[in-house]
Specification:
The complex is a heterodimer of chains A (about 350) and B (about 625).
Chain A lengths: L2 H18 L13 E6 L6 H12 L9 E6 L4 H12 L6 E5 L1 H9 L11 E7 L3 E6 L14 E6 L7 H9 L3 E6 L4 H9 L5 E5 H14 L2 E6 L2 E2 L5 E2 L10 H9 L6 H15 L2 E6 L4 H16 L1 H11 L5 E2 L2 H9 L4 H15 L4
Parallel strand pairs in A: 1-2, 1-3, 6-7
Antiparallel strand pairs in A: 3-12, 4-12, 4-13, 5-8, 5-9, 10-11
Helix pairs in contact in A: 4-9, 5-9, 9-13
Chain B lengths: L1 H11 L2 H19 L6 H11 L4 H18 L1 H7 L8 H12 L3 H36 L2 H18 L4 H15 L2 E2 L6 E2 L5 H4 L4 H20 L13 H10 L1 H15 L6 H14 L13 H24 L5 H12 L6 H6 L1 H30 L6 H17 L6 H18 L4 H24 L8 H22 L11 H21 L4 H26 L11 H20 L1 H16 L4 H22 L16
Antiparallel strand pairs in B: 1-2
Helix pairs in contact in B: 1-18, 2-4, 2-18, 3-4, 3-16, 4-7, 4-15, 4-16, 4-18, 5-6, 5-7, 6-7, 6-15, 7-12, 7-13, 7-15, 7-18, 8-9, 8-14, 8-21, 8-22, 9-21, 9-24, 11-19, 11-20, 11-21, 11-25, 13-14, 13-15, 14-15, 19-26, 19-27, 23-24, 25-26, 26-27
The chains are: A alpha/beta (about 350), B mainly alpha (about 625).
């Protein structure tokens, strides 16, 4: 073979090889791509609404303005959707997942149904939430310490989901609560307290502001405390949306004279971080190419800095600092890890209090 | 208040609103006509589009779609015997026999007229009730909801016709299978065999679809003719309308039923049309035609399920608590538009509520009008030889079933419950009874424990509770009288294969009871009661069979087996090649094996189906089942 022909062959082979390299290896451009935003919850619910809200804002900040479509995958509750994502999601950056407490908590507690692994997911963004605990005014105490003297009814979905947060909290405070399980969600629980069937309830911030605040203004309901927000040091501070309401540890101190401590308190903080303070994450498989992962993170960071987005988000998602940029790693770490001691405490607490095994 | 209403009126009358309403209505019509796509699937489709629309237009699209689905899902129910959505089940019972008699147009006419009247009634009640709705919803506590659920179960007696014990057995089986999942009182998993899909209970949508659609398809595949057994499609639209008008008090009562029960969140919208149907039977002097094509069996549920949409909007708008699955999606849509239903909306932006109400009323009118206009052309589809449309229908069914949770488990459930539905049909067990048990299981159980916890014996001091208990007793008594007054001559008795099926069910019940014995009391009570009841009724069925004089013949299994294999092969094809290619391959093979005459049309249909599926996925974001070979990646 002549050298010029060989050169030609080598050159054209190289050219062919280059042209077959995925376009993305050259630059994280989402032009013409359709991204599937998996949501392991039903249409119309809280997480679904959050995801669709984000999906409508994200493309503006991503190179090439891709189309983002939401795919609701349920089947076995959120766990089923999470499992399906871990099985089927592509690693080219076109599949991302919205997670919430319903995915994080079972993972945290080692639920045998869980096939997915947060350790294999890369977080791009997180939206914290908060909540408020309130009581029917007729049942509300004059002083916090009076709570110990009365039996209070509380409606719960189940002992192993997000309701762990109030259930452990009430237990730590040593309240005399009569818990009835089997309610279909916090919405029906709200209905139950309106009917006078239960005395205590809690709602997420957005639901509280929308549905309970008017009743508080009318005097029918009395807020007791807001859970609070977890700061960078891992301590619980007052919720900025409710500056006049004590946080849970403050309220605890008002009853017992000292701040909560011990393995039960550590367990509560761990569960709270997973269920509330870092409630919703946007994640993708961690074997997505690095430049694409970074493209997501910086795009959502830019989105979070945009004041137009902040304003819309404040209305839709509450006045919480969205978590974007590299700090999301720490947030996910905190949300999905629990010391063995704390986990052990929860497992035996569940067995002793509600005869539930995980 | 009046100026709020006037603002709302002006809004509704604007061109932008009306044109978007039309879009919603048309989209809803298309979706509802396809069997299994009605209800939440259609609504969910619009969510990506309405984001970014101005609030008023977005609301128009949502309301347009939601209200027309309840009218248009009559098409597949009457013409194919397949409920278009979960709330179209009862219409099948008498609507489909009417179609088989060649009176499809009459059934459709009556249904549309009843839907229109019911829907308008629902909108009117919604307007009036806004003021008093709040105390009404609050006065229905756990105790009242419990008895309402039991009332639903007493309707089984009404629906059972001559085979009361078989119907009760089917209901008990439904209750048992309905308890699969998480026990409400304790959170323990029951009967889930460690399968995640079963962990949260078997989803209703795919169960109803499978139970009614698959046996129908098997039946049609074996008969190999057109759906309408008689050639003439008697022009009966107007006759149907006259039927609805002459039964207007039934329409009104059904609408009242639909609205009131629709207002109570959590009772399950799918029970409402059975309650209406049951009421129609119980209040009729001549009950003999029910189940064979009594027009009242179409009018009552159709009126109720349109009125229900208006009713379900009340807790949605007032409390921000959705009254049904479709209003849950509707609420999600409102939130995306920046509207927040709930107390805040009632106090600050009540005009939105009135816009929704009137949009609902208007959409009902427009939707009914469109349905009337399209009734003839769509109804004439039933005269097409079934071989041509069979693969298309089957493929659509599979797609619809898959939309339940968008995992392959949906298709497994489709096959399982399809088989069960076929067996129930063949051996004379009432499928409506099964569905009633299945739907009400969770509600009855959780409300039972909640009533005990919240009220205890004091519940007997609540007036509404006592009224409902009385209604239960009356309803049960009527069912009992009806069953007793029947002579045995016309009843179809199960032959040996029916006996085997009965024994199988009894065995399942027994196994369930035994497996629950070591669980905590609150976990095991409900399934044990269901399992024991199942065995008691099975014994009654067998006893009756033993003592009967006429023995039934074992009908041939060959044809149904072939039909089942056909359906199975579609699933396998999809599992291998993915939906787009798999459905096309199946269709082509089907046409070839059946020896269809017009090759061109056949190929066109097969390719058209694939093209439609591809469009649905790319444009409307409908998820298609993926196969092992993901062919779509070839196309980028």
């Amino acid at each position: 073979m002549s050298s010029s022909r060989r050169d030609f062959l080598v050159g054209s082979t190289a050219l062919a090889a280059l042209s077959m390299t995925p376009q993305w290896a050259l630059a994280a451009d989402f032009e013409g791509k359709t991204i599937t935003f998996w949501v392991p919850y039903r249409e119309g619910g809280g997480t679904d609404t959050w995801a669709r809200f984000l999906a409508s804002w994200m493309p503006k900040y991503m190179d090439g303005e891709p189309t983002i479509v939401v795919r609701n995958v349920t089947g076995g509750g959120a766990i089923g959707g999470g499992n399906e994502f871990s099985r089927r999601a592509k690693s080219d950056g076109t599949d991302i997942l919205g997670t919430a407490g319903g995915l994080q908590l079972p993972f945290l507690l080692g639920d045998s149904r869980v096939e997915y692994d947060y350790g294999k997911w890369f977080p791009a963004y997180a939206s914290p939430f908060g909540g408020v605990v309130y009581a029917r005014t007729e049942a509300a105490p004059e002083n916090p310490a009076d709570l110990l003297n009365s039996e209070l009814g509380f409606g719960s979905i189940g002992a192993t989901g997000s309701d762990l947060i109030p259930l452990i909290a009430f237990s730590l405070m040593q309240l005399n609560t009569k818990v009835t399980f089997g309610l279909k969600g916090r919405g029906p629980a709200r209905l139950a307290i309106l009917r006078g069937e239960v005395d205590l309830d809690y709602q997420t911030t957005s639901s509280y502001l929308k549905n309970v605040q008017p009743l508080v203004d009318e005097g029918k309901m009395t807020p007791l405390f807001a859970w609070g927000v977890v700061n960078a040091d891992g301590e619980v501070e007052r919720d900025p949306t409710f500056p006049d309401l004590p946080s849970f540890p403050e309220y605890y101190a008002m009853i017992h004279g000292e701040a909560p401590s011990g393995p039960g308190w550590e367990a509560w903080k761990a569960v709270y971080s997973a269920g509330f303070a870092y409630q919703k994450f946007v994640v993708m498989p961690d074997d997505v190419p690095e430049d694409i992962r970074n493209a997501y993170r910086s795009a959502m960071d830019a989105m979070a800095q945009d004041s137009a987005f902040q304003q819309a988000a404040a209305e839709k998602l509450g006045a919480y600092q969205q978590i974007s940029g590299d700090v999301v790693d720490a947030a996910l770490e905190r949300a999905t890890s629990m010391s063995d001691e704390a986990k052990g405490w929860i497992v035996s607490w569940l067995k002793d209090t509600y005869d539930v095994e995980i | 208040m009046p100026d709020v209403i006037l603002t709302a009126m002006a809004n509704v009358a604007s061109f932008a609103f009306l044109s978007h309403l039309m879009i919603g209505v048309c989209l809803g019509l298309i979706v509802a006509i396809l069997p299994g796509f009605g209800g939440t699937v259609g609504l969910a489709l619009t969510l990506p589009f309405i984001y970014g629309m101005d609030a008023s237009s977005g609301v128009a699209v949502l309301v347009g779609l939601m209200s027309v689905v309840a009218t248009a899902d009559t098409f597949p129910a009457v013409l194919l015997g397949i409920p278009g959505s979960v709330s179209g089940q009862a219409t099948v019972v008498d609507g489909y026999p009417l179609a088989k008699k060649g009176e499809a147009a009459r059934a459709l006419g009556a249904a549309f007229a009843a839907s229109l009247m019911g829907g308008l009634f629902g909108a009117a009640v919604l307007t009036a009730a806004l003021q008093i709705a709040e105390p009404m919803i609050l006065s229905f506590g756990s105790g009242e909801l419990l008895v309402l659920g039991i009332l639903g179960v007493t309707m089984v007696g009404v629906l059972s016709g001559k085979n009361i014990f078989r119907a009760l057995m089917a209901a008990a089986l439904g209750l048992l299978i309905g308890s699969v999942g998480i026990a409400p009182a304790t959170g323990a998993y029951r009967f889930d065999f460690d399968i995640v899909y079963l962990g949260s209970g078997i989803p209703l949508t795919v169960v109803v679809l499978a139970l009614f659609a698959v046996p129908e398809m098997i039946e049609l595949l074996t008969r190999r003719s057109a759906i309408a057994e008689q050639r003439a499609l008697q022009g009966g639209l107007l006759r149907g309308v006259r039927d609805a008008i002459s039964n207007r008090w039934l329409v009104l009562r059904s609408a009242l039923l639909g609205t009131t029960i629709g207002m109570l969140p959590g009772i399950g919208g799918s029970v409402i049309d059975w309650l209406a149907y049951g009421h129609a039977v119980q209040s009729a002097k001549d009950k003999s035609e029910f189940g064979k094509g009594d027009i009242r069996g179409v009018i009552a549920p159709e009126s109720a399920n349109n009125a229900k949409e208006g009713g379900a909007l009340i807790p949605t708008m007032i409390f921000g608590i959705p009254g049904s699955a479709s209003t849950a999606v509707f609420m999600g849509g409102l939130i995306l538009l920046g509207l927040e239903p709930g107390l805040t909306m009632v106090m600050m932006s009540a005009d939105v509520i009135y816009v929704v109400i009137w949009g609902l009323a208007l959409a009902n009118i427009v939707g009914a009008g469109l349905c009337f206009a399209l009734a003839r052309p769509i109804a004439s589809l039933t005269r097409v030889p079934f071989d041509y449309i069979a693969p298309v229908l089957l493929a659509l069914l599979v797609l619809a079933g898959f939309q339940t949770t968008r995992t392959w488990n949906d298709l497994h459930a489709l096959l399982f419950f399809g088989l069960l539905g076929w067996a129930l049909l063949r051996y004379g067990f009432s499928r409506p009874a099964f569905v009633i048990g299945f739907v009400l299981a969770e509600g009855i159980e959780s409300n039972l424990y909640q009533t005990i916890d919240f009220y205890g014996w004091e519940v007997f001091q609540r007036p509404v509770f006592l009224i409902l208990v009385a209604m239960c007793l009356i309803s049960a008594y009527i069912g009992y009288r009806q069953a007793r007054g029947v002579t045995d001559s016309g009843a179809k008795r199960p032959a040996i294969d029916g006996v085997i099926f009965t024994l199988l069910c009894a065995a399942v019940g027994l196994a369930a009871v035994i497996s629950m014995l070591d669980k905590s009391p609150q976990t095991r009570l409900f399934p044990i009661v269901a399992g024991v009841a199942l065995n008691l009724f099975a014994a009654a069925v067998l006893a009756r069979n033993w003592f009967s004089t006429q023995k039934g013949e074992v009908e041939s299994y060959r044809a149904p087996m072939i039909a089942m294999a056909t359906i199975g092969s579609l699933i396998i094809s999809i599992a291998a090649f993915g939906y787009v290619i798999g459905a096309a391959i199946f269709s082509l093979c089907f046409y070839f094996i059946r020896g269809v005459q017009n090759r061109l049309v056949a190929v066109g249909l097969a390719l058209g189906l694939s093209a439609l599926a591809a469009i649905l996925q790319s444009q409307l974001n409908i998820q298609l089942p993926e196969g092992m070979i993901d062919v779509t990646t070839l196309f980028g």
